Amino acid sequence: MNPLAGISTQEWQVLAGPLRLRSEAERDVPRSLVASELLNDAVCSALLDELGPVIGSPSRRITASLLGKRLSFLLTGACLYAMSAYDKGLTLSLDNTYIEYGHDDGLWASSLPLRSLDAAVAPPEQREAWRLAIATQLFAGLLQPLWRSLHGVTGVSRRILWENTAVRVYSLYEKRLAKLECVATRQRCAEDFRWLTDEAPASVFGLDYNPLAHFNRPVTLLDNGTRAVRFRRTCCFYYQASNPVEYCSTCPLIRPKATR
Description:
By secondary structure, the chain is mainly alpha-helical. The chain has one domain (9-218): Transferase(Phosphotransferase), domain 1 (Orthogonal Bundle), CATH 1.10.510.40. The chain is 45% helix and 10% strand. The protein is built from seven helices and ten strands. The protein has helices at 9-16, 41-55, 60-86, 127-154, 158-176, 183-199, 211-214, and strands spanning 21-23, 32-34, 88-89, 98-100, 103-104, 107-108, 112-114, 120-121, 220-222, 227-229. The model has no long low-confidence stretch (mean pLDDT 93).
């Protein structure tokens, strides 16, 4: 049964499949909390202390960065995919969103449960204002308070957390949405991506700059021009929580010196 009002079965399969959207009833109860609870310093600290040994992290700061990477995928993926591919708006607010942090056998097991799965359909002649509202709720209303809390508790750089977010948004639009079959839908997705990374005002993110624009550095061509990589400006510390040591494919620490 499709629990999401206004979304077709085929659309729900994508959102609930690779993008891991879930209903409230499907949440991982022992390893989840309402997003607003993470703004409490004591709750945030306890979650990070519980998660750190599970993911092999040596410090709260590194745990916060790696949790932020996972949350960036979950919180931006379904929301922006629904917005751009389906013209449907999910409510990702502090009180409607659950934060899951399950991690089993070296892999994240977390999903994105929402209390209400009702979707707002984009008004045909007011889509730009609607898009602005959806993006502002996601970034300034949800992610900015979460990143502020993780920074306050651990000291992890807010720019690391925002680049974690930016990397996930780039991947969503360049690797997933760019491959949709419908030409008109691909064009709408490309326009949304251009707006997010070029025109969206800083207020959309609750910041004094647009982090999606700031971190959108040119790609580096590798392997005789056959592979394009957009190397990060900041390191997410993944290598410090892996054994044996591994680096992300976009890690600035492995960027060829000649291209720095």
